[in-house]
Amino acid sequence: MEELKLYDAEYRLMEIVWELEPLSSTELYKACLPRLGWKKSTTYTVLRKLCERRILKNENSVVTSLVKREDVQRYESQAVVEKWFDRSLPRFVAAFLGEKKITEEEAEELKRLIDESREKSSGASGGKVQKKGEGDAT
């Protein structure tokens, strides 16, 4: 699962791809210039590295993601809980909330997410993250 670890610069480029895909590599460079201040060489270097890691695909100069934003966010969130909170989700939530008050709507949303997670846990796939297109056979 380490394959989903993205450095800040990689994640920032991925945000642009997820927002605009599919897009040409030239369009990607043109989007990175004002948002990230990157030169063409920087954009293409990060693009190449993400393609080598099979995070992105650049086929015929058309760039698309092979990994979903939600999967990367899930990986990063789990990594934080494991590294800093001894794999304890309640400790993470307590630290995250601190003394912050949450609204009734936020509390209901959290309850709904917990209930959904309980339902999934009985038939979970072991938490394995699939790349786009894997396991989609019908």
Question: How does this structure look, described?
Answer:
The chain is mostly helical. It has 2 domains: 2-65, Winged helix-like DNA-binding domain superfamily/Winged helix DNA-binding domain (Arc Repressor Mutant, subunit A, Orthogonal Bundle); 85-120, no CATH class. Helix content is 59%, strand content 7%. The protein is built from 6 helices and 3 strands; from the N terminus they run H-E-H-H-E-E-H-H-H. The chain has a 3-stranded antiparallel sheet with strand order 1-3-2. A hairpin with a 2-residue loop joins strand 2 (56-59) and strand 3 (62-65). It is elongated. The model has no long low-confidence stretch (mean pLDDT 86).
Give a concise summary:
This protein is mainly α and 138 residues long.
Keywords summarizing the entry:
7% strand; 2 domains; Arc Repressor Mutant, subunit A; 138 residues; mainly alpha; single chain; 3-stranded antiparallel sheet
Hey, roughly how much beta strand do the residues contain?
A: 5-15%
Q: How is the largest sheet built, in terms of strand order?
A: 1-3-2
Order of helices and strands: HEHHEEHHH
Largest sheet: 3 strands, antiparallel
* Percent range of helical residues: 55-70%
CATH homologous group name of the largest domain: Winged helix-like DNA-binding domain superfamily/Winged helix DNA-binding domain
C-alpha termini separation: 25 Å
Number of domains: 2
Overall average residue pLDDT: 86
Q: From the helix content, strand content and strand pairing, which structural class follows?
A: mainly alpha
Q: What is the oligomeric state here?
A: single chain
Radius of gyration: 18 Å
Q: Note poorly predicted spans.
A: none
CATH topology of the largest domain: Arc Repressor Mutant, subunit A
Q: Choose one word for the global shape.
A: elongated
CATH class category label of the largest domain: Mainly Alpha
* CATH architecture title of the largest domain: Orthogonal Bundle
- E-strand count: 3
